[in-house]
Design goal:
The chain has 4 helices and 5 strands, in the order βββαααββα. Strand 2 and strand 3 form a beta hairpin. With about 130 residues, the protein is α+β, with helices and mostly antiparallel strands.
Length: about 130
């Protein structure tokens, strides 16, 4: 059975005023499957090439919270305690910060976890 899902790309925008970005992960929500998850594939070398002055440890710490919040893991802080749909909307809300998300897109999948893996491979990881 195929289900629709929503997703957003997690982006690093080290200098917001320049608008340059690095794709660093994906968040997928599939309410019909009670699914919300995020995967991060942070490459510090790509960040250093774009913005040598940006601290990769700070960026990595912020990125590490995203999958925890998506999973409802208490280590993600108080936002993790929100209902699944509210967590998704909080994660993908527009913001002007170093960590941002793309607009939300929609897709169709057989299995949302597989769709998440495929999106990370196609949209985040460097081409092979």
């Amino acid at each position: 059975m195929r289900d629709s899902f929503d997703y957003a790309i997690v982006r690093i925008v080290p200098r917001v005023e320049r608008g340059e970005l690095i794709n660093a992960g994906v968040i997928v929500s599939c309410p019909t499957r009670s699914f919300l998850a995020a995967k991060i594939a942070f490459d510090p070398a790509r960040l250093a090439a774009l913005s040598p002055s940006t601290d990769p440890a700070e960026v990595e710490h912020a990125l590490d919270l995203i999958p925890l919040i998506a999973a409802g893991d208490a280590r993600g802080g108080p936002i993790s305690a929100l209902p699944r749909g509210e967590r998704f909307h909080w994660l993908v809300a527009p913001r002007s910060a170093v960590i941002q998300t793309s607009p939300v897109h929609t897709g169709i999948c057989d299995e949302p976890a597989d769709a998440l893996d495929d999106l990370v491979r196609r949209l985040v990881l460097p081409p092979r």
